[in-house]
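Board notes, transcribed. Complex of a protein with guanosine-5',3'-tetraphosphate.
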Amino acid sequence: MSIHDGADGETAADVRGQAARRRTFAIISHPDAGKTTLTEKFLLYGGVLTAGAGSVRAKGDRRATASDWMELERRRGISVTSAVVQFSYRDRVLNLLDTPGHGDFSEDTYRVLSAVDAAVMVLDGAKGIEAQTRKLFEVCRNREIPIVTFINKWDRPARDPLELLDEIEDQLVLDPVPVTWPVGEGERFSGLIDRRSGNFVRFARTAGGATTAEEETVDPARAGVEEGAAWHEATEAVELLDAAGAELDAKRFEAGELSPVFYGSALTNFGVRMLLDAIVELAPAPGARLDADDEPRPVDAGFSAVVFKVQSNMDPAHRDSMAFLRVCSGRFERGMAVVCGRTGKTLATKYAHTVVGRDRSTAEEAWPGDVIGLVNAAGLRVGDAVHAVADPVRWTAVPSFAPSSFRVARCTDTSKAKQFRSGVRQLDSEGVVQVLRRPEGGESAPILAAVGPLQFDVAEHRLRHEFGAPVELAPAPWTTARRTDQASADLLGTMSGVTVAERAEGGELLALFESPYWLARLQSDHPELTLERLIGEG
Ligand code: G4P
């Protein structure tokens, strides 16, 4: 029996209530700024991890060696998979979606960010904005995602807190508004002023930050006596901020123009609770999602979800693939019949999972904002809509990023040509790399296109180990791609210094250039050519 084909009455009220309780967000940061540590601490405060229970990405984890995929992660020291964790905090349910830290995977990040309602940007207090912060921030800006800023590692020598705010404003053109302000820094970092109440929240250190930080709320008069010079310095800065009118404005935050700023230390847990409180209080709950016709689909409509990641070989013991779906509207119940909007195929949801890190448990039900994993949902692609049978929807396609690295792939063992072709198709549908074809290359020598070269390592590794197809990825000369159309493609075909290729998925035509100068020259000589920029072009 299904009660979900068009949620109404009691179900609709339930759905609205459950959606209002949820906060679905991601963390973005430059590698080493503390994303993994902060994730761990969120789980500690959410009661998922207990003291000493280990970390989300335990370094040197023994299980790591059991998986090819994780072996690659470990060897390169980077996280290349996106996972999701769900935990409760206060009376809310928080869904934290992991994003790869390395900018080479920013296309992957973009897809994850298509499934969140807010992001936490973590900065290292000694370093400020770093290269990958900027790149990932641009992705957020593109999607107009509200951003909460966490300035981390305040237990170590850090830069001037006001200077860090200036840097955010200048480099990101984002209006930073501190909600908390640090008293002391490094070893003398003792707590935070909550600008909303004027109170001082003093922390007590715990060994290695293994348990939540003990906090004491101290009124300003007493703090002045007990904290001495650091207090006066902090209050002076706060007065300056007050005078400058640095106030929180919810609308500007939700529009991605203003970012509430929190200082702290993920290592010692100082400020972590205040950050989590802010996510619960400030980040928007799941709301109506715009469909392909720009019509809002309310959260209490029939069940619908968006696929934001497809990943193979999560568990080498099963050699399966999993599609990650974020629920956009309605209630999901395991076993219900759902349809992929693009293919019209019905999908089995008997084996739906919730995924915490690498551990799966069966998902009995899910609400807007939640993430479910469908095992072996072959044929699902990033951006697909999955919906209740009677309540169809289509989402706007998730655009592909501008590739800037290219390789020509060839299978080095002719007896494995079939495995090579099916592997390349699989990697393309998962978005591991973009696959392009030229008439002369066909399926035996496709062009692999990527935002960053690390994507090729992943592609090569998986073709070899997962599909049994040894490959050679020959360097290709192109550096810039533009979207074009058939008329321009015909003309470009007669010119030198440009190659036209077709996306294997979707058939879009791309013009590939060896240098931006050549592109600029062609554009000025032939203004009639269609050469559109792709998103994410540096
Ligand atoms: P990432 O996921 O953003 O790459 O960063 P991660 O959390 O792995 O943190 C990178 C390093 O910074 C780790 O040290 C971590 O312990 C440290 N760190 C994170 N937050 C803080 C903080 O608030 N204060 C201080 N002092 N250090 C912090 P590591 O030595 O590379 O690794 P580990 O051996 O400590 O795990």
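The two ends are 51 Å apart (CA to CA). Confidence is low (pLDDT under 50) at residues 1-7, 50-72, 76-82.
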